[in-house]
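So, who can interpret the following?
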Amino acid sequence: MQDKKAVSAVVEDYAAGRMGRRKFLRTMGVLGVSAALADLVGVSPLSAVTAWAAVNGAEERAWELAKKAAAKASKKTLTLLIPTGSIGNMTPYADKWKNELGITLEFIEEPDEVVHTKGMQEAVAKTGRYDVMMPTAMSYPDWLDSGLIYDLTDWVETYKPDIFHESWGVVFPASHHAQLYNGRVVGLLCDGDQITLLCRGDYIKDGAKAKAFEDKFGYKLDVPHTWKEYYNLASFMHDPKNNFYGSLEYRSRYYAKWMFMQRLASKGRLWFDQDMNPTFNSPEGLQVLDDMLAVNQFLHPDAFSFTWSSNYNAFGRGEGFMNIAWPSGFKYSKAPSTGPATSGKIMATVMPADVLPDGSRLFAGMFCWGYGFAVSRYSANPELAYAYIQWMTSPTISADAIPYLGGYSDPYRINHMLAPTKRLVETYTTDYLKILYNNIVNTVPDFCLPGGFEYQDALDKEVHACMTGEKKPKDALDAASRAFERITRRVGKDKARKSWFALTENLAEPIKKATGRTAWKL
């Protein structure tokens, strides 16, 4: 971590005129502050001290609250329900909380797919077992409506975690999709789970391959910019005799829906219309399934059984040309220990666009999964729990936590991507961080609605059945549509519709226009 006292002293010297700008930037770099962040402070219209205090403020406000809450806490343990695989981003700070606050952090790990269920069980049992809970944004509606978690809005207004700050807040639209429910803050994002596309750069730069590709397709070999180009690359690079496959795109249960959803969004279709009628059982939806079926022949043979970890491992071993992965997939592929065949050889890009009927291209990726922190209403120390989640997700602490290889949290704040620390650059590279920013601004949300887990499971089940040949495309989408209608009736159409309107209000403008969202009326 940065030596905060040393950084503050340098900032004060610069503000007082005791240090020139060039030396200020050089010294801040030595102390682990990125050039972009140091430059932001150095050219701010505020004084340097004020600017540094501003970017550091969310962390400091949270720590002051934590000290006060810890001093009066009868229970000296803060218990966190977290998904397996995320602990590596949190354990580096456990000693600080124990030594300086007298608070022991107890981590209870559960598999990704059961965290939501554990929360719903606690909503009934009300044991107070958990203080902090780490769900995906899909859990927030059901958890809040069941009385399990706090509405954080008042705390956010009081302690200012800067989640909407124009220079270091969470990037829009994830700032709204992954933290708000019906306009209220219900969680603080700690994991920027957006999907991006990874390619083997060494194959793209291979002169012989480049010539053969251009001769065959009539354009230069590069990362794919459209889904058609993606298909062409998968077919061209596919070499199963040498255990090398065109793509490692998921077809497995639990992941298949996201592959369908992000392709569908790039065709200008959402999951529902303004009246909560499912819209994926449409010509666009059928075309997506046809496109996915067509590329199946060029996929890794384990595509139908991949988990995120087995997918990352296969790509890192050098078993494919392309992979659709979360940013942690890039992190793992770049590290020599987990990407022995891919380290230093990855070229990444935003998710491919589709070509709309008017000839324009629509870029629409998925912000899917994406963990955040919530505070249990049955916690014995809710203020302390809130202080913890603001501190961990602050612009400064989060930038330090994310690079740890032992956890899968990924960049989500503006400063993570556009003003990164040295460790963030070393972990992700400056180029990939910019790709993350350019991709996230055009992402669509998961089913962050009441009944969200039911919706996503119903769609996943039917997409998977189509991919395995169990069902024909139209039968699969019709079945998913019927399931959606049943879920909406159970949730309550008015309730679901209100939430859907609030969620889609915060889409990027090109996506709102292409999907017709701009003309909806509540």
